[in-house]
Amino acid sequence: MGARMSREIRPATPADLPALHPVIERAYRGDSARLGWTHEADLLSDTRTDLPTLHAILADPAQVLLTLFEGKEPLGCVNVANRGGGVAYLGLLCIEPTRQGEHLGRKLIEAAQTHARDVFGCRIIEMTVIEQRRELIAYYERRGWRVTGERRPFPIPLDPPFFMTVLAKPLA
User: Fold this and answer.
1) Which of 11, 20, 73, 161 has the fewest CB atoms below 10 angstroms from its CB?
2) 161 pLDDT band (50/70/90 cuts)?
3) Which of 99, 79, 77 is nearest to 33 (CA)?
4) Residues β-bridged to residue 146
5) Taking a C-beta distance cutoff of 8 angstroms, is the pair 70, 6 a contact?
6) CA distances from 86 to 21, 38, 123, 126, 149 (A)
7) How confident is the model at residue 154 (pLDDT cuts 50, 70, 90)?
8) What is the pLDDT of residue 48?
9) Contact 69/8 with Cβ under 8 angstroms?
10) List of residues 6+ apart from 98 with CB closer than 8 A
11) In 10 A of CB 126, how many CB atoms?
């Protein structure tokens, strides 16, 4: 096997979104998502996001969409939002399903935490995970996140409703 191309994590630009959007959808939904272990494909079947939503993230100065590239190909991303009061929110974390297990998600999480602390000046970062995803919650707990006890409604009304478990981590 040949050497991998160089990797970099940087904020996405509008020109990156047409190639990045399908990576997000493959990571979260449909049969391709089942190649990885962090998918929601067994719980949800709608699209995860759309290009206008991604463009809105890029246009918002209180948010960044950090994207991991290998050469010119996006392999994954993470959204970091400054919620004010020293709190950042981590969301939309994904890695191309065929590349999960290479610790690429860890690199994106580290970059998100650094951005939240050093650029947004936050002291705490939080995220939400669908409460049915116990193995994913346990994964984050092993990495220093703690379950806060707070539950939030899932952003899309469903019957029966889903709830999100809130996890938080101090930014040293």
Assistant:
1) 161
2) confident
3) 99
4) 168
5) yes
6) 29, 28, 5, 11, 20
7) confident
8) 58
9) yes
10) 35, 36
11) 20
